[in-house]
Amino acid sequence: MNPSTAETVLEVSGLSFSYPNGRQALDGVRFSLRHGEILGIVGPSGAGKSTLLLHLNGLLPLRPEPTRASTNGAAVHVAGLSVGAANLAEVRRRVGFLFQDPDDQLFCPTVRDDVAFGPLNLGLPRAEVERRVVESLSAVGLEGFESRSTLQLSLGERKRVCLAGVIACQPLILALDEPFSNLDPRARRALVDVLRRFEGSQIIATHDLDVVVELCNRVLVLDEGAIRADGAPAVVLGDQALMERHGLEVPLRLQLLRNPPQ
Question: What is the pTM of this model?
Answer without folding.
Answer: 0.90
